[in-house]
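Human: We require from you a standard protein entry with sequence in single-letter code and fold as tokens, and nothing else.

Assistant:
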Amino acid sequence: MGAVYFYHLTLNPLDRSLTMLLGKARAAGWRVAVRGTDTNRLAWLDEKLWLGPDDGFLPHGLAGGPHDADQPILMTTEMQAANDPACVMAIDGAPVDPSEVSALQRVCILFDGNDPQSVQHARGQWKSLTDAGCSAQYWSEESGRWEKKAEK
């Protein structure tokens, strides 16, 4: 049974935090789906990943291509990613279902701590997922490094 980790972004932008988390997930051997709500935002993140350092390259692709099932990291707006991920990273308020938390190794929810609507949405997700019996952790970077602040 997996767990859902909430990442409260306050110091680093989404692209930097996502790159770090994707690197950790790939080091664990996991295929990842980055689930967003806006294809333009995913295209922007795709570009950021392509421009990253050569020594930290993260192989990835945008959903809709001929090789979606082969992508180690697939960026998508769909609930069912074609690359059979072990981990889903939900951004920008993308939905997460309790059944997928239990079916996957990990679900990560990244949310902008400087946006009150994003924080409120993440709180709602925490409540609905933990009420459904999902194991959850809340991580914050407000001290300058990531620290676990809560677990349920």
Q: What stands out?
A: The longest strand covers residues 3-9. Residues 3-151 form a domain with the Rossmann fold fold (CATH 3.40.50.10110). The chain has a mean pLDDT of 95.
